[in-house]
Amino acid sequence: MKQLPLLATVGCSLHFAGIILGHDLAGGGDHPHYDFSVKPPGADGQPVWFLAQADAGAPRHPVAAGGAAARGDRPAQAAAFEAFAPGVKLRWDERWLFVESNGMPAHNMMVGITAWQQQVPLPQNYTGANAWQIPLAPVPAKVPVSIKGRFLRGAIALAANGIPIFNPQNNRGEVSQEIGELDQWGGHCGRADDYHYHAAPVHLQTVLGKDKPIAYALDGYPLFGLTEPDGSQPAGLDAFNGHTTGSLGYHYHASMKYPYVNGGFHGEVVERGEQVDPQPRAQPVRPDLPPLRGAKITGFETKGNSYKLTYEVSGEKRAILYSVNADGSVPFEFQNGREGTTKETYTRREGGGGGGRGGPGGPRPDGERPPRPGGGPGGQRPREGGGEPRRPGESAATAVVSPFGPDAMKKPNATFVLTSPEVADGGNLPADYTGDGSGATLPLSWKGAPEGTKSYALVMDHLAPGNEMKSYWNVWDIPATVTSVPKNVQGVGKVGTSFRGKIGYEPPHSQGPGAKTYVLTVYALSAPLEIAQAPREVGRDVLLAAMKDKVLASSSLHVVYTRGTTSTNERPRTGVPPK
Protein backbone atom coordinates (compact mmCIF):
# COMPACT_ATOMS: atom_id res chain seq x y z
CA MET A 1 0.00 0.00 0.00
CA LYS A 2 1.25 3.44 -0.88
CA GLN A 3 0.57 6.04 1.75
CA LEU A 4 -0.20 9.46 0.30
CA PRO A 5 -0.61 11.18 3.64
CA LEU A 6 -4.35 10.65 4.08
CA LEU A 7 -7.67 11.48 5.31
CA ALA A 8 -7.83 10.26 8.85
CA THR A 9 -8.26 6.69 9.98
CA VAL A 10 -9.43 4.65 7.03
CA GLY A 11 -9.62 1.41 8.94
CA CYS A 12 -12.83 2.39 10.69
CA SER A 13 -14.27 4.62 7.99
CA LEU A 14 -16.86 2.16 6.73
CA HIS A 15 -18.52 1.57 10.06
CA PHE A 16 -20.23 4.87 10.81
CA ALA A 17 -23.45 4.03 9.03
CA GLY A 18 -25.13 2.65 12.10
CA ILE A 19 -23.88 4.89 14.90
CA ILE A 20 -25.95 7.46 16.70
CA LEU A 21 -24.01 10.40 15.30
CA GLY A 22 -25.04 9.58 11.74
CA HIS A 23 -27.68 11.60 9.92
CA ASP A 24 -29.92 10.71 6.97
CA LEU A 25 -31.14 12.88 4.16
CA ALA A 26 -33.09 10.88 1.63
CA GLY A 27 -35.02 13.75 0.11
CA GLY A 28 -38.17 13.36 -1.89
CA GLY A 29 -39.88 14.27 -5.11
CA ASP A 30 -39.34 13.06 -8.64
CA HIS A 31 -36.09 12.41 -10.40
CA PRO A 32 -34.61 15.55 -11.94
CA HIS A 33 -35.19 16.38 -15.58
CA TYR A 34 -32.18 16.42 -17.88
CA ASP A 35 -31.56 18.29 -21.07
CA PHE A 36 -30.39 15.33 -23.18
CA SER A 37 -29.00 17.66 -25.84
CA VAL A 38 -26.27 18.87 -23.49
CA LYS A 39 -23.09 16.91 -24.06
CA PRO A 40 -19.92 16.57 -22.00
CA PRO A 41 -16.61 18.17 -22.87
CA GLY A 42 -15.32 16.90 -26.19
CA ALA A 43 -11.81 16.08 -27.28
CA ASP A 44 -10.36 19.35 -28.52
CA GLY A 45 -6.97 18.66 -30.00
CA GLN A 46 -4.22 16.62 -28.41
CA PRO A 47 -3.99 15.96 -24.66
CA VAL A 48 -2.38 18.77 -22.71
CA TRP A 49 -0.48 18.31 -19.47
CA PHE A 50 0.59 21.30 -17.43
CA LEU A 51 3.92 21.17 -15.64
CA ALA A 52 2.98 23.39 -12.72
CA GLN A 53 2.23 21.78 -9.37
CA ALA A 54 -0.53 22.53 -6.93
CA ASP A 55 0.69 24.60 -4.00
CA ALA A 56 1.68 21.99 -1.45
CA GLY A 57 1.95 24.60 1.22
CA ALA A 58 -1.54 26.00 0.82
CA PRO A 59 -3.56 26.29 4.03
CA ARG A 60 -6.76 24.40 4.62
CA HIS A 61 -9.76 26.14 3.11
CA PRO A 62 -13.51 25.92 3.50
CA VAL A 63 -15.16 23.64 0.99
CA ALA A 64 -18.01 25.04 -1.11
CA ALA A 65 -18.82 27.67 1.49
CA GLY A 66 -18.66 25.11 4.26
CA GLY A 67 -16.48 22.52 5.89
CA ALA A 68 -16.72 19.64 8.27
CA ALA A 69 -20.13 19.12 9.75
CA ALA A 70 -20.49 19.77 13.42
CA ARG A 71 -22.63 17.30 15.27
CA GLY A 72 -26.20 17.65 14.01
CA ASP A 73 -25.33 20.14 11.24
CA ARG A 74 -26.11 19.48 7.60
CA PRO A 75 -22.77 19.57 5.73
CA ALA A 76 -22.44 22.08 2.91
CA GLN A 77 -21.35 19.29 0.59
CA ALA A 78 -24.84 17.79 0.77
CA ALA A 79 -26.36 20.60 -1.31
CA ALA A 80 -25.18 19.32 -4.69
CA PHE A 81 -26.24 15.73 -4.04
CA GLU A 82 -29.64 16.76 -2.64
CA ALA A 83 -30.66 17.95 -6.08
CA PHE A 84 -30.75 14.31 -7.24
CA ALA A 85 -32.87 12.85 -4.44
CA PRO A 86 -34.46 10.38 -4.05
CA GLY A 87 -32.12 8.54 -6.41
CA VAL A 88 -29.25 9.76 -4.25
CA LYS A 89 -29.44 9.36 -0.48
CA LEU A 90 -27.13 10.92 2.08
CA ARG A 91 -25.99 10.42 5.63
CA TRP A 92 -23.01 11.81 7.48
CA ASP A 93 -20.99 11.88 10.63
CA GLU A 94 -18.32 14.31 11.80
CA ARG A 95 -15.80 13.09 9.23
CA TRP A 96 -17.55 11.72 6.16
CA LEU A 97 -20.45 12.35 3.83
CA PHE A 98 -21.82 8.96 2.78
CA VAL A 99 -23.50 8.93 -0.63
CA GLU A 100 -25.77 6.07 -1.68
CA SER A 101 -27.14 5.32 -5.14
CA ASN A 102 -27.87 2.43 -7.48
CA GLY A 103 -25.37 3.68 -10.04
CA MET A 104 -28.05 4.34 -12.68
CA PRO A 105 -28.37 7.99 -13.76
CA ALA A 106 -31.70 9.59 -14.65
CA HIS A 107 -30.31 10.64 -18.03
CA ASN A 108 -30.00 8.32 -21.00
CA MET A 109 -26.86 6.25 -21.50
CA MET A 110 -24.56 4.48 -23.96
CA VAL A 111 -25.74 6.17 -27.18
CA GLY A 112 -22.90 7.14 -29.49
CA ILE A 113 -20.24 4.70 -28.27
CA THR A 114 -18.14 3.35 -31.13
CA ALA A 115 -15.47 1.53 -29.12
CA TRP A 116 -17.60 -0.84 -27.07
CA GLN A 117 -16.48 -3.43 -24.54
CA GLN A 118 -19.90 -5.14 -24.77
CA GLN A 119 -20.96 -4.17 -21.26
CA VAL A 120 -24.41 -2.77 -20.46
CA PRO A 121 -25.71 -0.67 -17.54
CA LEU A 122 -26.90 -2.63 -14.52
CA PRO A 123 -27.91 -1.29 -11.09
CA GLN A 124 -25.21 -1.43 -8.43
CA ASN A 125 -25.58 -1.63 -4.67
CA TYR A 126 -23.73 1.50 -3.56
CA THR A 127 -25.45 1.48 -0.17
CA GLY A 128 -24.69 0.80 3.48
CA ALA A 129 -21.06 -0.14 4.02
CA ASN A 130 -20.66 -0.07 0.22
CA ALA A 131 -21.57 3.62 -0.04
CA TRP A 132 -19.32 6.33 -1.45
CA GLN A 133 -17.37 8.39 1.09
CA ILE A 134 -16.48 12.06 0.69
CA PRO A 135 -14.23 13.58 3.39
CA LEU A 136 -15.88 16.63 4.93
CA ALA A 137 -12.61 18.31 5.88
CA PRO A 138 -10.14 17.68 3.07
CA VAL A 139 -6.47 18.11 3.93
CA PRO A 140 -4.00 19.55 1.39
CA ALA A 141 -1.37 16.97 0.54
CA LYS A 142 2.24 17.74 1.27
CA VAL A 143 2.98 16.33 -2.18
CA PRO A 144 -0.08 16.51 -4.47
CA VAL A 145 -0.22 13.60 -6.92
CA SER A 146 -1.14 13.52 -10.59
CA ILE A 147 -3.58 10.99 -12.01
CA LYS A 148 -1.77 10.81 -15.35
CA GLY A 149 -0.76 7.18 -15.77
CA ARG A 150 -1.84 6.54 -12.19
CA PHE A 151 -5.09 5.70 -10.38
CA LEU A 152 -6.20 3.88 -13.53
CA ARG A 153 -8.55 1.64 -11.57
CA GLY A 154 -11.59 2.76 -9.63
CA ALA A 155 -13.09 6.21 -9.30
CA ILE A 156 -11.29 9.49 -8.68
CA ALA A 157 -14.45 11.54 -8.06
CA LEU A 158 -18.18 11.19 -7.48
CA ALA A 159 -20.71 13.15 -9.52
CA ALA A 160 -23.59 14.89 -7.76
CA ASN A 161 -26.03 12.33 -9.20
CA GLY A 162 -24.21 9.48 -7.44
CA ILE A 163 -22.34 8.25 -10.52
CA PRO A 164 -18.59 7.68 -10.12
CA ILE A 165 -16.08 9.50 -12.28
CA PHE A 166 -13.01 7.59 -13.40
CA ASN A 167 -9.64 8.70 -14.61
CA PRO A 168 -9.96 10.14 -18.16
CA GLN A 169 -7.50 7.41 -19.14
CA ASN A 170 -8.74 3.85 -19.28
CA ASN A 171 -6.64 1.22 -17.61
CA ARG A 172 -4.63 0.74 -20.79
CA GLY A 173 -3.58 4.39 -20.57
CA GLU A 174 -5.73 5.59 -23.49
CA VAL A 175 -7.92 8.68 -23.10
CA SER A 176 -11.44 7.23 -23.30
CA GLN A 177 -13.03 10.42 -24.63
CA GLU A 178 -10.65 10.47 -27.58
CA ILE A 179 -11.10 6.89 -28.85
CA GLY A 180 -14.90 6.58 -28.98
CA GLU A 181 -15.40 4.74 -25.70
CA LEU A 182 -17.81 7.28 -24.17
CA ASP A 183 -21.44 8.06 -24.80
CA GLN A 184 -23.03 11.49 -25.30
CA TRP A 185 -22.98 12.07 -21.55
CA GLY A 186 -19.32 11.22 -20.99
CA GLY A 187 -19.86 7.72 -19.63
CA HIS A 188 -19.83 4.03 -20.40
CA CYS A 189 -19.95 0.71 -18.56
CA GLY A 190 -17.09 -1.10 -16.88
CA ARG A 191 -16.36 -4.77 -16.56
CA ALA A 192 -19.00 -5.21 -13.86
CA ASP A 193 -21.66 -3.60 -16.11
CA ASP A 194 -21.29 -0.54 -13.89
CA TYR A 195 -21.98 2.84 -15.48
CA HIS A 196 -19.51 5.65 -14.79
CA TYR A 197 -18.06 8.77 -16.36
CA HIS A 198 -14.58 9.44 -17.73
CA ALA A 199 -15.30 13.06 -18.64
CA ALA A 200 -16.79 15.75 -16.45
CA PRO A 201 -20.62 15.55 -16.52
CA VAL A 202 -21.17 19.26 -17.13
CA HIS A 203 -24.70 18.41 -18.32
CA LEU A 204 -25.63 18.04 -14.66
CA GLN A 205 -25.68 21.83 -14.52
CA THR A 206 -29.10 21.72 -16.16
CA VAL A 207 -30.23 20.51 -12.73
CA LEU A 208 -27.65 22.09 -10.45
CA GLY A 209 -27.00 25.42 -12.07
CA LYS A 210 -23.49 26.87 -12.16
CA ASP A 211 -23.32 27.75 -8.49
CA LYS A 212 -22.96 24.18 -7.23
CA PRO A 213 -20.24 21.59 -7.83
CA ILE A 214 -21.04 18.92 -10.39
CA ALA A 215 -18.89 16.46 -8.42
CA TYR A 216 -16.54 15.98 -5.51
CA ALA A 217 -13.11 14.44 -5.95
CA LEU A 218 -12.38 11.60 -3.55
CA ASP A 219 -9.92 13.86 -1.73
CA GLY A 220 -12.94 15.96 -0.68
CA TYR A 221 -12.44 19.01 -2.90
CA PRO A 222 -15.34 20.09 -5.17
CA LEU A 223 -15.33 19.97 -8.95
CA PHE A 224 -17.18 22.83 -10.66
CA GLY A 225 -18.12 23.18 -14.31
CA LEU A 226 -16.31 25.12 -17.00
CA THR A 227 -16.84 28.46 -15.25
CA GLU A 228 -16.96 29.97 -11.81
CA PRO A 229 -20.39 30.19 -10.14
CA ASP A 230 -20.76 33.77 -11.41
CA GLY A 231 -20.11 32.67 -15.00
CA SER A 232 -16.58 34.06 -15.21
CA GLN A 233 -13.70 32.06 -16.62
CA PRO A 234 -11.45 30.40 -14.01
CA ALA A 235 -7.96 31.85 -13.87
CA GLY A 236 -4.66 30.55 -12.62
CA LEU A 237 -5.52 26.85 -12.75
CA ASP A 238 -2.82 24.48 -11.56
CA ALA A 239 -1.75 21.17 -13.05
CA PHE A 240 -4.90 19.51 -11.76
CA ASN A 241 -7.45 22.01 -13.15
CA GLY A 242 -7.73 23.53 -9.68
CA HIS A 243 -7.16 26.82 -7.91
CA THR A 244 -8.07 28.71 -4.75
CA THR A 245 -10.56 31.58 -4.54
CA GLY A 246 -11.64 33.56 -1.52
CA SER A 247 -15.26 32.44 -1.62
CA LEU A 248 -14.79 28.75 -2.44
CA GLY A 249 -11.33 27.85 -1.20
CA TYR A 250 -9.54 25.25 -3.28
CA HIS A 251 -11.66 23.61 -5.98
CA TYR A 252 -11.29 21.91 -9.36
CA HIS A 253 -12.87 22.77 -12.73
CA ALA A 254 -14.04 20.69 -15.67
CA SER A 255 -12.31 21.31 -19.00
CA MET A 256 -12.89 20.72 -22.71
CA LYS A 257 -9.61 18.89 -23.13
CA TYR A 258 -7.44 16.56 -21.09
CA PRO A 259 -7.66 16.09 -18.14
CA TYR A 260 -11.42 16.93 -18.43
CA VAL A 261 -11.81 16.45 -14.65
CA ASN A 262 -9.47 16.87 -11.69
CA GLY A 263 -6.07 16.07 -13.10
CA GLY A 264 -4.75 14.91 -9.76
CA PHE A 265 -5.35 15.10 -6.05
CA HIS A 266 -4.64 18.37 -4.27
CA GLY A 267 -5.80 16.67 -1.07
CA GLU A 268 -4.58 13.65 0.81
CA VAL A 269 -5.71 10.23 -0.40
CA VAL A 270 -4.64 6.64 0.16
CA GLU A 271 -3.63 4.61 -2.89
CA ARG A 272 -4.15 0.88 -2.66
CA GLY A 273 -4.28 -1.50 -5.61
CA GLU A 274 -3.83 1.31 -8.16
CA GLN A 275 -6.91 3.16 -6.93
CA VAL A 276 -8.12 5.47 -4.19
CA ASP A 277 -9.11 3.63 -1.05
CA PRO A 278 -11.73 3.35 0.37
CA GLN A 279 -14.37 3.20 -2.34
CA PRO A 280 -17.29 0.88 -3.11
CA ARG A 281 -17.13 -2.38 -4.98
CA ALA A 282 -19.28 -2.94 -8.04
CA GLN A 283 -20.87 -6.39 -8.26
CA PRO A 284 -20.86 -8.18 -11.62
CA VAL A 285 -23.42 -10.71 -12.77
CA ARG A 286 -21.47 -11.97 -15.78
CA PRO A 287 -17.89 -12.08 -17.10
CA ASP A 288 -16.23 -9.01 -18.53
CA LEU A 289 -16.00 -8.94 -22.30
CA PRO A 290 -13.53 -7.79 -24.98
CA PRO A 291 -14.34 -5.12 -27.58
CA LEU A 292 -16.75 -5.84 -30.42
CA ARG A 293 -15.09 -4.45 -33.51
CA GLY A 294 -17.17 -2.24 -35.79
CA ALA A 295 -20.06 -1.83 -33.34
CA LYS A 296 -21.86 1.45 -32.75
CA ILE A 297 -24.49 1.88 -30.05
CA THR A 298 -27.56 3.60 -31.50
CA GLY A 299 -30.13 3.51 -28.70
CA PHE A 300 -30.87 2.67 -25.10
CA GLU A 301 -34.35 2.31 -23.58
CA THR A 302 -35.46 1.86 -20.00
CA LYS A 303 -38.87 0.66 -18.84
CA GLY A 304 -39.04 -0.11 -15.15
CA ASN A 305 -36.48 -2.82 -14.51
CA SER A 306 -36.20 -3.76 -18.19
CA TYR A 307 -33.67 -2.40 -20.64
CA LYS A 308 -32.93 -2.52 -24.36
CA LEU A 309 -29.64 -1.55 -25.95
CA THR A 310 -29.55 -1.34 -29.75
CA TYR A 311 -26.42 -1.27 -31.85
CA GLU A 312 -25.14 -1.83 -35.36
CA VAL A 313 -22.29 -3.96 -36.65
CA SER A 314 -21.32 -3.29 -40.27
CA GLY A 315 -24.78 -1.84 -40.88
CA GLU A 316 -26.63 -4.81 -39.37
CA LYS A 317 -29.02 -3.91 -36.54
CA ARG A 318 -28.72 -5.87 -33.33
CA ALA A 319 -30.03 -5.57 -29.78
CA ILE A 320 -29.60 -6.75 -26.22
CA LEU A 321 -32.72 -7.03 -24.05
CA TYR A 322 -32.35 -7.67 -20.35
CA SER A 323 -34.13 -7.15 -17.06
CA VAL A 324 -33.40 -7.34 -13.36
CA ASN A 325 -35.70 -9.71 -11.48
CA ALA A 326 -36.69 -9.44 -7.83
CA ASP A 327 -34.66 -12.57 -6.99
CA GLY A 328 -31.50 -10.97 -8.37
CA SER A 329 -31.38 -12.99 -11.59
CA VAL A 330 -30.77 -11.12 -14.83
CA PRO A 331 -32.11 -12.75 -18.01
CA PHE A 332 -30.46 -11.57 -21.25
CA GLU A 333 -31.65 -11.96 -24.83
CA PHE A 334 -29.00 -11.26 -27.48
CA GLN A 335 -30.55 -10.49 -30.86
CA ASN A 336 -27.58 -11.05 -33.14
CA GLY A 337 -29.07 -10.38 -36.55
CA ARG A 338 -28.40 -13.08 -39.10
CA GLU A 339 -26.40 -15.00 -36.51
CA GLY A 340 -29.57 -15.74 -34.57
CA THR A 341 -30.78 -15.13 -31.02
CA THR A 342 -29.23 -16.44 -27.84
CA LYS A 343 -30.45 -16.27 -24.26
CA GLU A 344 -28.68 -16.46 -20.93
CA THR A 345 -29.78 -15.95 -17.34
CA TYR A 346 -27.16 -14.81 -14.87
CA THR A 347 -27.17 -14.59 -11.09
CA ARG A 348 -25.17 -11.92 -9.33
CA ARG A 349 -21.81 -13.14 -8.12
CA GLU A 350 -20.46 -11.67 -4.91
CA GLY A 351 -16.98 -10.19 -5.06
CA GLY A 352 -14.92 -9.14 -8.04
CA GLY A 353 -16.24 -6.48 -10.31
CA GLY A 354 -15.58 -2.95 -10.88
CA GLY A 355 -13.95 -0.35 -8.85
CA GLY A 356 -13.61 -0.97 -5.25
CA ARG A 357 -11.55 -2.43 -2.58
CA GLY A 358 -10.63 -5.78 -3.83
CA GLY A 359 -10.11 -6.19 -7.26
CA PRO A 360 -12.62 -3.51 -11.14
CA GLY A 361 -10.92 -5.53 -9.97
CA GLY A 362 -12.00 -6.96 -8.63
CA PRO A 363 -12.30 -5.11 -11.81
CA ARG A 364 -12.82 -1.37 -11.34
CA PRO A 365 -16.51 0.04 -11.18
CA ASP A 366 -14.67 -0.10 -14.86
CA GLY A 367 -12.45 -1.34 -14.59
CA GLU A 368 -11.89 -1.34 -17.92
CA ARG A 369 -9.19 -3.83 -17.72
CA PRO A 370 -6.86 -2.24 -17.51
CA PRO A 371 -9.26 -6.79 -20.23
CA ARG A 372 -17.32 -10.85 -24.74
CA PRO A 373 -22.30 -9.92 -27.24
CA GLY A 374 -22.43 -10.92 -30.85
CA GLY A 375 -23.00 -14.48 -31.87
CA GLY A 376 -22.50 -16.54 -28.73
CA PRO A 377 -24.46 -16.85 -25.50
CA GLY A 378 -22.40 -14.01 -24.09
CA GLY A 379 -23.38 -12.16 -27.21
CA GLN A 380 -19.95 -11.89 -28.80
CA ARG A 381 -19.53 -12.44 -32.47
CA PRO A 382 -17.16 -15.37 -33.00
CA ARG A 383 -13.87 -14.84 -34.71
CA GLU A 384 -13.55 -16.05 -38.25
CA GLY A 385 -12.44 -19.63 -38.09
CA GLY A 386 -13.63 -20.02 -34.51
CA GLY A 387 -11.40 -20.06 -31.46
CA GLU A 388 -11.17 -17.72 -28.56
CA PRO A 389 -12.13 -14.02 -28.90
CA ARG A 390 -9.26 -11.60 -29.31
CA ARG A 391 -7.74 -9.90 -26.32
CA PRO A 392 -9.00 -6.43 -25.47
CA GLY A 393 -7.34 -3.78 -27.59
CA GLU A 394 -6.39 -6.17 -30.41
CA SER A 395 -7.61 -6.10 -33.97
CA ALA A 396 -6.95 -8.68 -36.65
CA ALA A 397 -4.07 -6.52 -37.81
CA THR A 398 -2.51 -5.98 -34.40
CA ALA A 399 -2.92 -9.38 -32.72
CA VAL A 400 0.55 -10.39 -31.58
CA VAL A 401 2.12 -13.44 -33.21
CA SER A 402 4.25 -15.16 -30.60
CA PRO A 403 7.94 -15.73 -31.38
CA PHE A 404 7.40 -19.18 -29.91
CA GLY A 405 5.35 -21.47 -32.14
CA PRO A 406 3.28 -24.44 -31.01
CA ASP A 407 6.33 -26.72 -30.73
CA ALA A 408 8.73 -24.23 -29.16
CA MET A 409 11.08 -25.63 -26.52
CA LYS A 410 9.55 -29.08 -26.86
CA LYS A 411 11.87 -32.08 -26.68
CA PRO A 412 9.81 -35.29 -26.89
CA ASN A 413 11.20 -38.30 -25.08
CA ALA A 414 9.77 -41.80 -25.45
CA THR A 415 10.09 -42.53 -21.76
CA PHE A 416 8.70 -39.23 -20.44
CA VAL A 417 4.90 -39.39 -20.58
CA LEU A 418 2.14 -36.98 -19.52
CA THR A 419 -1.33 -38.40 -18.87
CA SER A 420 -4.64 -37.51 -17.21
CA PRO A 421 -7.17 -39.82 -15.55
CA GLU A 422 -9.94 -37.66 -17.10
CA VAL A 423 -8.99 -37.70 -20.79
CA ALA A 424 -6.69 -39.68 -23.10
CA ASP A 425 -4.35 -38.02 -25.58
CA GLY A 426 -6.52 -36.75 -28.43
CA GLY A 427 -9.68 -37.30 -26.40
CA ASN A 428 -12.55 -34.95 -25.61
CA LEU A 429 -12.01 -32.55 -22.73
CA PRO A 430 -14.91 -32.86 -20.23
CA ALA A 431 -16.97 -29.68 -19.97
CA ASP A 432 -16.19 -29.38 -16.26
CA TYR A 433 -12.70 -28.21 -17.21
CA THR A 434 -13.98 -25.47 -19.53
CA GLY A 435 -15.90 -22.23 -19.16
CA ASP A 436 -19.11 -24.20 -19.73
CA GLY A 437 -18.50 -26.04 -16.47
CA SER A 438 -16.80 -25.16 -13.22
CA GLY A 439 -13.57 -24.16 -14.93
CA ALA A 440 -11.55 -26.68 -12.93
CA THR A 441 -7.95 -27.47 -13.72
CA LEU A 442 -7.30 -30.91 -15.18
CA PRO A 443 -5.68 -33.58 -12.96
CA LEU A 444 -2.36 -34.65 -14.49
CA SER A 445 0.47 -37.08 -13.84
CA TRP A 446 3.81 -37.74 -15.51
CA LYS A 447 6.54 -40.32 -15.29
CA GLY A 448 9.88 -41.22 -16.85
CA ALA A 449 11.63 -37.88 -16.36
CA PRO A 450 15.30 -37.89 -17.40
CA GLU A 451 18.06 -38.10 -14.84
CA GLY A 452 19.13 -34.68 -13.71
CA THR A 453 15.62 -33.17 -13.68
CA LYS A 454 15.59 -30.35 -11.13
CA SER A 455 12.12 -28.90 -11.69
CA TYR A 456 9.12 -28.93 -14.02
CA ALA A 457 7.08 -26.35 -15.89
CA LEU A 458 3.61 -26.69 -17.39
CA VAL A 459 1.98 -24.85 -20.28
CA MET A 460 -1.51 -25.20 -21.79
CA ASP A 461 -1.92 -23.45 -25.13
CA HIS A 462 -3.88 -23.34 -28.38
CA LEU A 463 -2.96 -22.27 -31.90
CA ALA A 464 -5.67 -19.83 -32.96
CA PRO A 465 -6.35 -18.52 -36.47
CA GLY A 466 -3.66 -16.18 -37.72
CA ASN A 467 -0.92 -18.27 -36.07
CA GLU A 468 -1.74 -16.65 -32.76
CA MET A 469 -0.66 -18.68 -29.74
CA LYS A 470 -2.97 -18.41 -26.76
CA SER A 471 -2.03 -19.78 -23.38
CA TYR A 472 -4.47 -20.87 -20.70
CA TRP A 473 -2.20 -22.10 -17.91
CA ASN A 474 1.44 -21.30 -17.16
CA VAL A 475 3.15 -22.90 -14.15
CA TRP A 476 6.82 -23.16 -13.23
CA ASP A 477 9.02 -24.03 -10.26
CA ILE A 478 7.18 -27.34 -9.82
CA PRO A 479 9.54 -29.35 -7.57
CA ALA A 480 11.31 -32.35 -9.09
CA THR A 481 9.69 -34.52 -6.41
CA VAL A 482 6.21 -33.74 -7.76
CA THR A 483 4.95 -36.09 -10.48
CA SER A 484 1.22 -35.32 -10.42
CA VAL A 485 -1.25 -32.55 -9.71
CA PRO A 486 -4.86 -33.06 -8.62
CA LYS A 487 -7.98 -31.42 -9.97
CA ASN A 488 -8.06 -27.75 -8.98
CA VAL A 489 -4.47 -27.90 -7.82
CA GLN A 490 -3.35 -25.20 -5.40
CA GLY A 491 0.02 -24.30 -3.98
CA VAL A 492 2.23 -26.21 -6.42
CA GLY A 493 4.84 -24.11 -8.17
CA LYS A 494 4.36 -20.56 -9.33
CA VAL A 495 1.44 -19.59 -11.57
CA GLY A 496 1.62 -16.95 -14.29
CA THR A 497 -0.98 -15.25 -16.45
CA SER A 498 -3.20 -16.51 -19.24
CA PHE A 499 -3.47 -14.80 -22.61
CA ARG A 500 -6.17 -12.58 -21.09
CA GLY A 501 -3.70 -11.26 -18.55
CA LYS A 502 -5.23 -12.93 -15.51
CA ILE A 503 -3.21 -14.97 -13.06
CA GLY A 504 -4.23 -18.62 -12.92
CA TYR A 505 -6.01 -21.08 -15.15
CA GLU A 506 -8.16 -19.67 -17.96
CA PRO A 507 -10.71 -22.35 -18.90
CA PRO A 508 -11.35 -22.56 -22.66
CA HIS A 509 -14.32 -20.52 -23.90
CA SER A 510 -14.29 -21.28 -27.62
CA GLN A 511 -16.89 -19.18 -29.46
CA GLY A 512 -16.82 -20.72 -32.92
CA PRO A 513 -18.37 -24.02 -34.01
CA GLY A 514 -16.24 -27.13 -34.47
CA ALA A 515 -13.58 -28.93 -32.48
CA LYS A 516 -10.69 -27.00 -30.97
CA THR A 517 -7.49 -28.64 -29.79
CA TYR A 518 -5.73 -27.50 -26.64
CA VAL A 519 -2.27 -28.79 -25.74
CA LEU A 520 -0.91 -29.35 -22.24
CA THR A 521 2.87 -29.77 -22.10
CA VAL A 522 5.06 -30.59 -19.13
CA TYR A 523 8.75 -29.74 -19.39
CA ALA A 524 11.50 -31.52 -17.42
CA LEU A 525 14.15 -28.91 -16.67
CA SER A 526 17.83 -29.18 -15.77
CA ALA A 527 17.62 -26.25 -13.36
CA PRO A 528 15.01 -24.00 -11.77
CA LEU A 529 13.99 -21.14 -14.05
CA GLU A 530 15.40 -17.70 -13.38
CA ILE A 531 12.41 -15.39 -13.79
CA ALA A 532 12.69 -11.95 -12.27
CA GLN A 533 9.22 -10.73 -13.26
CA ALA A 534 6.25 -10.87 -10.94
CA PRO A 535 3.76 -13.69 -11.73
CA ARG A 536 1.30 -11.18 -13.25
CA GLU A 537 3.95 -10.41 -15.87
CA VAL A 538 4.78 -14.02 -16.73
CA GLY A 539 2.89 -15.36 -19.71
CA ARG A 540 3.73 -18.13 -22.14
CA ASP A 541 6.44 -16.22 -24.00
CA VAL A 542 8.28 -15.16 -20.85
CA LEU A 543 8.10 -18.68 -19.48
CA LEU A 544 9.35 -20.34 -22.67
CA ALA A 545 12.15 -17.82 -23.06
CA ALA A 546 13.36 -18.65 -19.54
CA MET A 547 13.53 -22.37 -20.50
CA LYS A 548 16.19 -21.87 -23.16
CA ASP A 549 18.96 -24.47 -22.81
CA LYS A 550 17.28 -26.02 -19.75
CA VAL A 551 14.76 -28.44 -21.30
CA LEU A 552 15.78 -32.08 -20.84
CA ALA A 553 12.52 -33.55 -22.13
CA SER A 554 8.88 -32.70 -22.69
CA SER A 555 5.61 -34.53 -23.09
CA SER A 556 2.30 -33.23 -24.40
CA LEU A 557 -1.34 -34.16 -23.90
CA HIS A 558 -3.76 -33.03 -26.64
CA VAL A 559 -7.37 -32.48 -25.61
CA VAL A 560 -10.31 -31.55 -27.81
CA TYR A 561 -13.35 -29.49 -26.96
CA THR A 562 -16.43 -28.83 -29.09
CA ARG A 563 -19.17 -26.43 -28.07
CA GLY A 564 -22.80 -26.71 -29.13
CA THR A 565 -23.98 -24.50 -31.99
CA THR A 566 -27.72 -24.16 -31.32
CA SER A 567 -29.19 -20.71 -32.00
CA THR A 568 -30.96 -20.46 -28.66
CA ASN A 569 -29.59 -21.63 -25.38
CA GLU A 570 -31.15 -20.59 -22.11
CA ARG A 571 -29.94 -21.85 -18.78
CA PRO A 572 -29.39 -20.23 -15.38
CA ARG A 573 -25.76 -19.66 -14.42
CA THR A 574 -24.11 -18.80 -11.15
CA GLY A 575 -20.54 -19.55 -12.17
CA VAL A 576 -18.44 -18.30 -15.04
CA PRO A 577 -20.50 -18.25 -18.27
CA PRO A 578 -19.22 -18.61 -21.80
CA LYS A 579 -16.99 -15.83 -23.01
Provide a compact summary of the structure.
The chain has 579 residues and is mainly β.
Describe the protein's architecture and organization:
The chain has helices at residues 78-82, 205-208, 540-546; strands at residues 2-4, 23-25, 89-92, 96-100, 132-135, 140-146, 155-159, 164-166, 187-189, 195-197, 215-217, 222-224, 242-245, 249-253, 264-267, 269-272, 275-277, 295-303, 306-313, 316-323, 329-335, 341-347, 417-419, 427-428, 444-447, 455-464, 468-479, 484-485, 494-495, 515-525, 551-562, 572-573. The two termini are 33 Å apart. It has 579 residues and is mainly beta. A hairpin with a 4-residue loop joins strand 7 and strand 8 (164-166). The strands form eight sheets. The chain has a six-stranded mixed beta sheet with strand order 8-7-11-12-14-13, with no helix packed on it. Strands 18-19-20-21-22-32 form a six-stranded mixed beta sheet, with no helix packed on it. Strands 24-31-30-26-27-29 form a six-stranded mixed beta sheet, with no helix packed on it. It has three helices and 32 strands.
